[in-house]
Amino acid sequence: MKAESVIKLSAPATREFWEIPVLFEDDYLLALDKPAGLLSSPDRYDPQRPNLTKLLHAAIAAGKPWARERGLDYLMNAHRLDLETGGVILLAKTKPTLVALANLFGSEKPLKKYVALAQGSSPEDKFEIDAKLAPHPLKLGLMRADPENGKKSKTRFETLERFSGYTLLQCEPLTDRTHQIRAHLRHAGLPVVGDGLYGAKKLWLSRLKPDYRLKPGREERPLISRVALHAESLALPHPVTGQIVTITAPWPKDLQVALKYLRQYAL
What we know:
Layout: E1 6-11, E2 16-25, E3 29-34, H1 52-61, H2 65-68, E4 76-77, E5 86-92, H3 95-105, E6 112-119, E7 126-130, E8 133-135, E9 143-145, E10 154-163, E11 166-173, H4 180-187, E12 229-237, E13 244-248, H5 253-265
Parallel strand pairs: 5-12
Antiparallel strand pairs: 1-2, 2-3, 3-5, 4-5, 6-11, 6-12, 7-10, 8-9, 10-11, 12-13
């Protein structure tokens, strides 16, 4: 494994810039800590919107220093993360590696672990949701439990911390469906904090702190302004060596801040 580094990407059209930490790298694999707010792949409805795959390919074609020093001519993501979800994303440096990874991700194994801050109280310390998922027939981009038309979808959950009105969960998707964790938690009555698409509210300090006072002229911002879901780790047999590789991404600052105030005011 090479020394940890940072990959710099930019989108001149939108004047955006990202410094993305490398979590793991060898001759076949590259794992990055994808920032929340950046698409992992092109958006079918807005193909011009910046996305990680396109930015990486453009940087390789332009011979950027990080790509040139690695001798990269191929790089493709083996799975996706939602726009607002940050954390571990794995890319293949060769096509045979990508094929091997696709087979791994298609198997029913708990390769990926996420942490989610959910709205509500989980019924058990450990539970599993086995509910087929399908696109909502009327609401674009929304997934829902559909026992007749849905595809097999299964997720394991474990309660990490309980708060008044909120639960911190570890989530292990055993299948790889669009919005799987978000849709399953909504189905269980535990939507992810900040996930307006699935009926959740944002987390406000003013609703936690009894003596909260906002300074005149200031507007309160939510403690976490996005979907409170983070791709924490990925563990899988290496597609070439067969050895187990475990890759971890640190919890983002906004999630840590939200938990800090929940521990202080919502226990």
